[in-house]
Task: inverse folding
């Protein structure tokens, strides 16, 4: 009888363990408390591993929880439990997206857990460098575009590409692509040639910055170097009267201002610096440099060939470190018009602000955390329009936060057709589509339809509020479409208007 009881107890324990393992495998991680006291501890707390390499991590709980059930969720490979510690091992990491969770569960099914962020990386296969859409000698005082192509790298959002002229860094760029698998990406940087550039070698460098847990020093792959020949005289066949004797018509910026895409800054995160240059011409000759203290973080130029004064916003992604606390960020706009233009070139800088992990404010009220839309696009619900019918306008606002502070206005010409707001209380960036029904009239033939997205963040937010508009299109009773199928057709081109960062420079 005693043996039978012992056997039954052992069988019950085995079934309980099997049931727990099955539960942990199928457990929905979102129902587990990540903010509980004495949660499990991963060592290391963040994992950076090269694709194909082995992995070894431990998860431990306090001795007082040794009678609790605990285990791993959403893991690959094998794990071994020894008292209050679990050893997780993978012989060869072959997953690009992975997040392992360690939980302990009490008798009331309360789950306390920790998540282990895992970054799987792959250095570039190679890096190639060229002059975009150009071959042969360069002409002094002209603008050219450098191109750096990085092949099969992951994750590309951690890649920093630096362009060099000799040993001088011309600019530094990062990607907005959040794809975790290997991708090939092209980075471009425009510059103006000088006579002294003759014989100088141009090249680029790709560095994979993975933080303190990543490989040290970071993996770096460089391109081959290309020597430049710069001619100081017009190319054969050029009319001397139209050569470099003409001074371009220009207008210095009215103001330059800098801001962040979010109101609060945390270390080891990626943020976007925004530099707004107001009413400058020609904008293609403008060089914008971002600074952290006295260190140049990156240099950008516009592809806009408009000769009249325009307002343009330049953006640069940065990865914060603990050492950045208190660093002053600012940007500089330089109008490079060649040797015939003003010497030295016209320069205007934004005001500087420090980064004590919070954007400065003129009020004690916290500035709301926000993100402007990536783009705004407009479309119809059908590909063909007839008069005296009802149709639905659609306005798609991509990746905006907080969406509940967004006001979307539909326009027919300069007439506001309707204004909408979202009931979504999600604080993280979301993409939302707003719709408005309209009844067409004969007089609507040729009217331009468009929509405007305004992020109203109250007096503590940017003033004037952030505004992004869609492209405008006319309605000759047919909506532009690449297909005759009656499905929503969105236009993806967009432009910024009336954007003013939180630290806008006042025009003196």
Result:
């Amino acid at each position: 009888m005693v043996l039978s009881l012992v056997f039954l107890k052992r069988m019950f324990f085995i079934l309980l363990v099997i049931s727990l393992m099955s539960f942990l495998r199928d457990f929905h991680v979102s129902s587990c408390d990540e903010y509980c006291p004495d949660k499990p501890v991963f060592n290391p707390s963040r994992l950076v591993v090269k694709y194909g390499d082995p992995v070894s991590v431990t998860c431990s709980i306090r001795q007082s929880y040794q009678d609790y059930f605990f285990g791993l969720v959403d893991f690959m490979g094998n794990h071994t439990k020894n008292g209050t510690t679990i050893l997780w091992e993978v012989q060869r990491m072959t997953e690009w997206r992975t997040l392992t969770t360690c939980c302990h569960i009490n008798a009331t099914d309360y789950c306390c857990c920790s998540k282990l962020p895992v970054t799987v990386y792959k250095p570039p296969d190679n890096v190639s460098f060229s002059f975009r859409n150009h071959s042969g000698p360069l002409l002094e005082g002209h603008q050219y575009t450098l191109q750096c192509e990085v092949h099969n790298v992951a994750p590309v959002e951690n890649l920093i590409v630096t362009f060099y002229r000799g040993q001088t860094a011309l600019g530094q760029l990062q990607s907005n692509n959040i794809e975790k698998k290997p991708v090939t990406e092209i980075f471009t940087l425009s510059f103006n040639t000088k006579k002294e550039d003759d014989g100088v070698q141009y090249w680029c460098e790709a560095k994979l910055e993975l933080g303190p847990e990543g490989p040290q020093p970071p993996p770096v792959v460089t391109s081959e170097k290309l020597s430049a020949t710069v001619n100081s005289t017009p190319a054969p066949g050029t009319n001397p009267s139209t050569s470099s004797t003409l001074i371009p018509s220009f207008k210095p910026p009215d103001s330059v201002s800098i801001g962040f895409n979010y109101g609060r800054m945390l270390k080891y995160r990626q943020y976007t610096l925004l530099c707004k240059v107001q009413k400058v011409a020609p904008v293609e000759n403008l060089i914008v440099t971002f600074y952290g203290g006295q260190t140049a973080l990156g240099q950008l130029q516009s592809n806009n060939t408009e000769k009249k004064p325009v307002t343009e916003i330049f953006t640069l992604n940065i990865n914060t470190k603990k050492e950045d606390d208190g660093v002053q960020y600012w940007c500089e706009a330089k109008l490079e018009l060649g040797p015939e233009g003003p010497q030295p070139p016209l320069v205007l800088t934004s005001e500087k602000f420090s980064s004590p992990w919070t954007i400065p404010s003129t009020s004690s009220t916290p500035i709301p955390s926000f993100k402007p839309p990536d783009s705004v696009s407009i479309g119809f619900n059908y590909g063909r329009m007839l008069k005296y019918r009802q149709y639905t306008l659609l306005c798609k606002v991509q990746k905006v936060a907080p969406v509940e502070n967004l006001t979307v206005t539909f326009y027919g010409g300069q007439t506001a057709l309707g204004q909408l707001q979202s009931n979504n209380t999600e604080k993280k960036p979301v993409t939302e589509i707003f719709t408005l029904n309209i009844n067409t009239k004969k007089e609507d033939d040729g009217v331009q339809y468009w929509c405007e997205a305004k992020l109203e963040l109250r007096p503590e937010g940017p003033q004037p509020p952030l505004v992004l508009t869609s492209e405008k299109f006319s309605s000759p009773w047919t909506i532009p479409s690449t297909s005759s199928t009656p499905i929503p057709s969105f236009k993806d081109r967009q432009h910024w208007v009336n954007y003013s960062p939180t630290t806008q420079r006042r025009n003196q």
